[in-house]
């Protein structure tokens, strides 16, 4: 599942990658339009002739990538306001396909309404929902307390509520659907229902008919015959009526419901979301966070708690989506994982958050995830759920750049190439580069071992083993080979001497010839 709450096209600054020609990029840099990361700051005023185009140019490539990230049974939700809903719908129809559009949902997030639009007090936002394909499987939402109280009756199959079987209105359908009009027979004392007045019922069994005045039944006669034990008859006023027993539990577990096209409730409001945020973050201020309950409901509806589903948000802001996923796992003892992406947008230096030591939005999101996990552990004591996460920043390669042509290399410049790794890179930097290169999940378990005094990383229970310390001896290489990893990685400049470097391949050929060796 992917959820995004992108910057709305309100005419304020937003940041996106500039992909114009080099001369334009140079101009933007010289005129102060780019930040230190190379992102272009744009004042997208409504007077701009490309007002909508600029925003859509920012969104389009991100949505293309989002589609590639989704599994065939995946789903994407996009929060947006009225300003770009039509344009966003158009590009999503192109990217995801019109047939994969599910709904344009209304989310009531301000119960009082905000007087920020001409003529109207706005009380809602929009939520677009697209699936990757027809393979998407909904999981429904748990029944609320107000609905659970209706399940007050019980038999040997469990608790149930009564739903009227009569379909009101529709008398004109009698000619087209005659099989939907037929009588039931009810035993008034027990409420048992039959389709015929047989010996099972005494002479007091009364018929309940469906006619043109009262409407028809929701089930045809074949379905009624098959599910007759799920029916219950009782007198209401001076008439008998037939009801379906709607059980709280079914073969798939507790009954769930589909969300409505209008999502509302106090827990979805911006005011509640802000109070919820401040309750755990204190003075670390953040404007208009999304409701945790709202996102948690989307996650529970769209993903299974026990299939290692991944929830992704690439406009993650304060980390509300991660917080919601933690809550969802806590409530369902789930094993979902999250990927949160956010550019390190700087915080106003006059804000309380900056004074508390948080320099950019990513710092706030990281802290919120930590605190959310701590609260979950404290409230539920579910220590078997993994609440840990890793935080990565996109950076340049760990390898030194080579700018010289072979003919331009001089004797003195060779001293700079004795080590091909940049001086400021740590062993962890190298390890994660290797994991990316080899396709090993960044969320894999990483353990540290000490072999002959050297620090050795064991990833995914020994699937990958790596050592980047200096002066690595043949004993270290031998012990790693004897562990039979699928991948073994070393640093070229780490070998203690030429003998270790020469014997490296022979050691693995002897003890673990199937291991794939890699030297940085």
Observed structural traits:
27 strands, five-stranded mixed sheet, 520 residues, elongated, alpha+beta
Polypeptide structure, described:
The protein is an alpha+beta fold and 520 residues long. The protein is built from 13 helices and 27 strands. The strands form nine sheets. A five-stranded mixed β-sheet has the order 1-4-6-5-20. The protein has a five-stranded mixed β-sheet with strand order 23-24-25-26-27, sandwiched between helices. The chain has a four-stranded antiparallel β-sheet with strand order 8-9-16-15, with no helix packed on it. A hairpin with a 6-residue loop joins strand 11 and strand 12. Helix 2 packs parallel to helix 3 and helix 7 packs across helix 8. The longest helix has 20 residues. It is elongated. The chain starts with a strand and ends with a strand. About 3% of the residues have low confidence.
Give the SSE layout.
Elements: E1 2-4, E2 13-16, H1 22-30, E3 40-43, H2 51-69, E4 75-80, H3 85-96, E5 101-108, E6 124-131, E7 141-142, H4 145-148, E8 153-155, E9 158-164, E10 166-167, E11 184-186, E12 193-194, E13 206-208, E14 216-217, H5 221-226, E15 231-236, E16 239-247, E17 249-250, E18 253-254, E19 256-257, E20 262-263, H6 270-281, H7 292-302, E21 310-313, H8 320-332, E22 337-340, H9 352-355, H10 361-380, H11 427-438, E23 446-451, E24 454-459, E25 464-467, H12 474-482, E26 487-490, H13 498-511, E27 516-519
Parallel strand pairs: 1-4, 5-20, 21-22, 25-26, 26-27
Antiparallel strand pairs: 2-3, 4-6, 5-6, 7-19, 8-9, 9-16, 10-14, 11-12, 11-13, 15-16, 17-18, 23-24, 24-25
Helix pairs in contact: 2-3, 7-8, 8-10, 12-13
């Amino acid at each position: 599942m992917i959820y995004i709450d992108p910057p709305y096209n309100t005419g304020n600054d937003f940041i996106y990658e500039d992909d114009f020609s080099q001369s334009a990029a140079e101009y933007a840099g010289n005129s102060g339009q780019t930040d230190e990361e190379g992102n272009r700051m744009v004042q997208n005023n409504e007077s701009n002739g490309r007002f909508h185009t600029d925003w859509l140019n920012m969104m389009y490539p991100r949505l293309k990538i989002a589609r590639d990230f989704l599994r065939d049974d995946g789903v994407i939700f996009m929060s947006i306001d009225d300003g770009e809903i039509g344009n966003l719908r158009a590009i999503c129809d192109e990217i995801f396909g019109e047939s994969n559009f599910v709904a344009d949902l209304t989310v009531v997030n301000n119960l009082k309404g905000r007087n920020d639009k001409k003529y109207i007090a706005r009380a809602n936002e929009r939520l677009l929902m697209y699936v990757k394909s027809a393979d998407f499987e909904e999981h429904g939402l748990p029944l609320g307390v107000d609905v659970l109280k209706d399940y007050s009756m019980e038999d040997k199959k469990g608790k149930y509520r009564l739903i009227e079987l009569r379909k009101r209105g529709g008398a004109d359908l009698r000619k087209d659907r005659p099989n939907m009009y037929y009588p039931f027979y009810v035993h008034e004392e027990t409420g048992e229902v039959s389709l015929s007045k047989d010996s099972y019922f005494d002479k007091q069994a009364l018929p309940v008919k469906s006619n043109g005045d009262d409407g028809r039944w929701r089930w045809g006669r074949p379905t009624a015959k098959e599910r007759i034990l799920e029916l219950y008859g009782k007198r209401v006023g001076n008439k008998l009526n037939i009801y379906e027993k709607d059980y709280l539990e079914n073969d798939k577990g507790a009954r769930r419901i589909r969300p409505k096209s209008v999502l509302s409730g106090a827990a979805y409001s911006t005011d509640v979301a802000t109070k919820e945020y401040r309750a755990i973050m204190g003075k670390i201020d953040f404007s208009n966070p999304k409701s945790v309950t709202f996102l948690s409901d989307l996650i529970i509806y769209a993903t299974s708690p026990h299939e290692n589903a991944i929830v992704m948000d690439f406009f993650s802001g304060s980390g509300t989506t991660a917080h919601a996923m933690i809550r969802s796992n806590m409530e369902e003892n789930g094993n979902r994982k999250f990927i949160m992406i956010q550019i390190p947008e700087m915080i106003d230096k006059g804000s309380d958050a900056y004074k508390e030591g948080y320099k950019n939005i990513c710092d706030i999101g990281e802290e919120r995830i930590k605190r959310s996990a701590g609260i979950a552990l404290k409230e539920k004591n579910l220590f078997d759920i993994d609440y840990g996460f890793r935080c990565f920043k996109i950076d340049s390669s760990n390898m030194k750049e080579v700018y010289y042509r072979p003919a331009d290399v001089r004797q003195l410049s060779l001293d700079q190439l004795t080590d091909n790794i940049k001086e400021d890179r740590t062993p962890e930097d190298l390890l994660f580069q290797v994991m990316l290169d080899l396709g090993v999940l960044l969320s894999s378990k990483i353990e540290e071992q000490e072999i002959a005094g050297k620090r050795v990383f064991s990833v995914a229970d020994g699937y990958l083993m790596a050592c980047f310390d200096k002066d690595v001896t043949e004993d270290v290489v031998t012990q790693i080979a004897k562990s039979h990893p699928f991948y073994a990685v070393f640093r070229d400049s780490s070998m203690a001497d030429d003998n270790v470097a020469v014997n490296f391949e022979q050691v693995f050929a002897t003890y673990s010839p199937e291991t794939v060796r890699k030297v940085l």
